[in-house]
Design a protein that fits this description.
CATH architecture of one domain: 3-Layer(aba) Sandwich
CATH class of one domain: Alpha Beta
Structural class: alpha/beta
Strand content: 5-15%
Distance between the termini: 29 Å
Number of strands: 5
Number of helices: 13
């Protein structure tokens, strides 16, 4: 049975599992969002340089239900950062050997050294969520995790690690919209797994597991910070702004650098270019196809043809991307499966990315 049939049979589009008050939210505009996001990303660069200079060790945990928006925030945090300083840890399911290890062992291998930031796209809290609900661990293993997790995190913090934990809260209606959008978007269809479908039928089980997890691990030393993620742009800005506020840092931007002049030629003769193997010139065929398409627009000026072509592209993008940035009820819950960096693209008006380095990057269809 296909994923589309499974999704349709598992949960009807009209089914609502959570109960919460409808909240009318004033949504931030795209231009205002991109401007503020770029400002925050500049601050993230300053934070990165401070962490590197002072030898800090930073761990940030991103947890939440599937399609809650964790991956989209991680993408925007790391977009301009140095991957040697800020890296993402998105672990797959444990191997048979890892299942016999101390539970925290495979996560310890990914902890930061001095001058590093590690963003965990799902973490050791899998045991409190998916493993508990899906029966991947027994009662003794689950109880031991609940007892040892706060102690483990206190050990990390006593060793000098800065630990920040985020829970992304998405409503049942919004999650279902995002799942359905993945069916229509070929670039995101791979994100739907049998575990995702199973999580739809166990919404309350995951909610209960999340509530119990918070009761045991939402401590004063290591609290959970909840990010409302029904509106993705709001979640991006709110989470990044809060993250920056959690670490005191200073601007270590170096003074302007003058590039040295190139030395004069010393007579070295390079091998002929014909001896090198180049990739095919694909862009030429794309240009030719585009010009041929424009030539078929009889009776139109070049400007009109270009506008029509751009409109067709926008329609194609809107058809392939279902907008998931609509008002819906906010509720909380735990996750049903390990997911890599993800979040849906929003099908709003498209703006081309800016090539100039001093202008903010424009996310065409936001995740």
């Amino acid at each position: 049975m296909t994923t589309a049939l499974l999704l349709g049979s598992v949960i009807p589009g009209s089914l609502t599992m959570g109960q919460s008050d409808v909240e009318v939210i004033e949504r931030i505009g795209k231009k205002v969002y991109n401007k503020e996001l770029f400002r925050l990303q500049l601050e993230l660069i300053k934070l990165q340089e401070w962490v590197k200079a002072k030898g800090l060790k930073v761990v940030v945990i991103f947890e939440g239900r599937d399609a809650a928006g964790k991956g989209g925030v991680i993408k925007r945090i790391t977009q301009y950062l140095n991957p040697r300083v800020a890296r993402v840890a998105a672990l797959p399911a444990p191997t048979d050997r890892q299942k016999t290890e101390w539970y925290f062992q495979r996560y310890v291998n990914h902890l930061p050294a001095a001058g590093e930031i590690v963003l965990f796209d799902r973490s050791w809290y899998n045991r409190a969520g998916v493993e508990k609900v899906m029966g991947f661990c027994d009662g003794q293993e689950y109880d031991e995790f609940m007892r040892s997790c706060p102690m483990f995190e206190r050990m990390l913090m006593r060793s000098g690690t800065i630990l920040i934990k985020y829970w992304f809260s998405v409503s049942d209606e919004e999650q279902l919209k995002r799942f359905k959008a993945r069916l229509d978007e070929p670039h995101k269809r791979w994100k739907l797994s049998p575990m995702d479908l199973e999580s739809l039928t166990r919404w309350e089980d995951y909610s209960e597991a999340k509530d119990v997890m918070f009761a045991h691990t939402d401590t004063k030393q290591s609290p959970w910070y909840v990010v409302k993620s029904d509106v993705k742009r709001h979640a991006h800005l709110n989470c990044i702004s809060h993250f920056l506020s959690m670490i005191e840092y200073e601007d270590l931007t170096p003074p302007p650098i003058e590039l040295p002049e190139r030395k004069g030629a010393r007579g070295y003769v390079r091998p002929p270019m014909s001896e090198q193997t180049f990739v095919p010139d694909h862009h030429s065929s794309v240009i030719a196809e585009h010009e041929e398409m424009m030539g078929e627009k009889e009776g139109s000026t070049e400007e009109e043809s270009e506008e029509e072509f751009e409109e067709e592209i926008e329609v194609m993008e809107e058809d392939s991307v279902t907008s998931t940035d609509e008002d819906s009820d906010a509720s909380e819950g735990d996750s049903g499966a390990e997911e890599s960096n993800e979040e849906e693209l929003e099908g709003e008006e498209s703006e081309d990315p800016q090539d100039e380095p001093d202008e903010p990057f424009q996310w065409d269809d936001e995740e």
